[in-house]
Design goal:
Blueprint: E1 17-20, E2 24-26, E3 29-31, E4 34-37, H1 45-66
Antiparallel strand pairs: 1-4, 2-3
Length: 67
């Protein structure tokens, strides 16, 4: 995965880096790569964990609508 803003660009550390790939079907399960990179000075790990949990819950609901 590569983000359009270079990691070495320290001025961009306040910009969240969110990347997802296309979903893949494997053994009747869908998989999606998701990466979120944020500055720990701006976002607490617990808050980010809540975001991932909410995305997971929404994706489970979405799964039922694909088939």
């Amino acid at each position: 995965m590569t983000h359009p803003i270079k990691y070495e660009d320290k001025e961009s550390t306040s910009v969240p880096r969110i990347f997802w790939d296309k979903y893949v079907l494997d053994d009747s399960k869908y998989y999606l790569t998701l990466n979120i990179t944020v500055s720990h000075a701006l976002v607490d790990g617990e808050d980010l964990a809540k975001v991932f949990e909410r995305i997971r819950k929404y994706s489970l609901k979405f799964k039922n609508t694909i088939n």
